[in-house]
């Protein structure tokens, strides 16, 4: 049984163009977006207090999930109760 298939970056030209334009615009202001997001995801992972949560984060990462995407999902889920008040 093979693992999940992942899209190749070449198959996502619009997303890649947007990402490159965003990185260039931020880079012009002295911000390394990729490094900033990687640092943010690492900090959020370290802030997971439950060993189960840390293990699941690592398991999802090993399965191919991007740590930045996992970090964004964690923040959305943490703030979900606040969304009901909007």
Describe this structure in words.
The protein is mainly α. The chain has one domain. Helix content is 67%, strand content 0%. Helix 2 (33-46) crosses helix 4. The longest helix is centred in the C-terminal third of the chain and has 17 residues, at 67-83. The model has no long low-confidence stretch (mean pLDDT 86).
Radius of gyration: 16 Å
Straight-line N-to-C gap = 45 Å
The largest β sheet comes out as: none
Mean pLDDT: 86
Class inferred from helices and paired strands: mainly alpha
- The dominant shape is globular
Low-confidence segments = none
- What is the ordering of alpha helices and beta strands? HHHH
Q: Tell me the number of helical segments per DSSP (H or I, 4 or more residues long).
A: 4
Helix content: 55-70%
* Estimated share of beta-strand residues: under 5%
The total tally of domains equals: 1
Number of strands: 0
Short structural description:
This protein is mainly α and 86 residues long.
Fold topology:
Blueprint: H1 13-27, H2 33-46, H3 51-62, H4 67-83
Any descriptors?
mainly alpha
